[in-house]
Amino acid sequence: MITSEIIGTGSYVPEKIVSNDDLSKIMDTNDEWIQSRSGISERRVSQGEDTSDLSVKAAIKAMEAANVVATDIDLIIVATVTPDMYTPSTACIVQKKIEAYNATAFDVSAACSGFLYGVSIANSMIKTGQHKTVLVIGAEVLSKAINWEDRATAVLFGDGAGAVIMKASENRGVKGIYTMSEGDKGENLEIGAKEVKNPFLDEKVDNSKYNYIAMNGREVFKFATKAMVTAVEKILLETKEDLCNIKCIIPHQANYRIIQYVSKKMDIPIEHFYINLDKYANTSAATIPIALDEAVRVGRIKKGDKIILVGFGGGLTYGAALIEW
Ligand code: COA
Q1: Of 8, 17, 159, 187, which one has the fewest beta carbons inside 10 Å?
Q2: Domain Beta-ketoacyl-[acyl-carrier-protein] synthase III N-terminal: where (predicted)?
């Protein structure tokens, strides 16, 4: 059966490290609160690089690892909720910067689940034969969407990018992907866009929107724990796979307590999860590909290993993929 496999990974985070103590100098917070509530110690913050810049750096590493050149790529998908612009898409900007002139390029907006959604689209495109060599990127500059006066959200997010190259495969690779959305719960995690404003607007209509992250933390926490468990169960069912055969789980890196909950609820040792949120905080669509890249490079994932990627996020959205490496 034709499926798709990841043949190379790459990631990039900005150099600037902002610790919890650094944050406590600009807002009413402290290291103890942030660590105990989330497990985060520090995050990377852009010094001017935009989402396409981080994407390009991650993409180049993934291309090197996969041993492909830019002109081999025929599809570029960038998952992001912090694009450089409304248009062109970040994917088109990346295409220009890496000179991948043979590609179709577009963005996917599924917040922290975006990378999984991107892998799902790439997998389907490869299976139908429509595309052969796909670059999937998850990248965010969330620091430009953070309300730096809202301590409840500002401490949780960071900037970064991760990328993979996917190709057709006859045996190894993606064994199954499950994605789901619950749009009725979307208001629990929002980043507003431009408000509706035109010369013909009824002045009485309230269209005011904020263009920074706003979150109902408790509701998202409840959703996240349920969504992660559901997604893992669904993907195991779909692939007829047993949890005890899964070598490594790469979860969305939002909060250590959410991962701990899933670990206990599903009786999965916490060591089976690859966790790096202490260093980078929640980089939304980028957390899974950054963690995947790190796990591959440090030898946590080896050829033949069965792994699960699982995430949740704004939308609200969630999903999981089971991959044989
Ligand atoms: N530093 C210090 N105190 C803070 C703070 C901060 N950065 N942020 C909030 N607080 C305060 C609150 O004001 C509140 O004070 P009060 O009791 O005097 O009103 C107190 O800490 C408790 O806040 P609460 O919201 O009850 O904390 P919590 O235990 O629910 O944890 C989150 C908050 C956000 C860490 C938690 O709800 C969470 O992780 N949710 C999921 C978020 C997530 O994963 N989002 C990304 C999805 S992709």
Answers
A1: 187
A2: 106-176
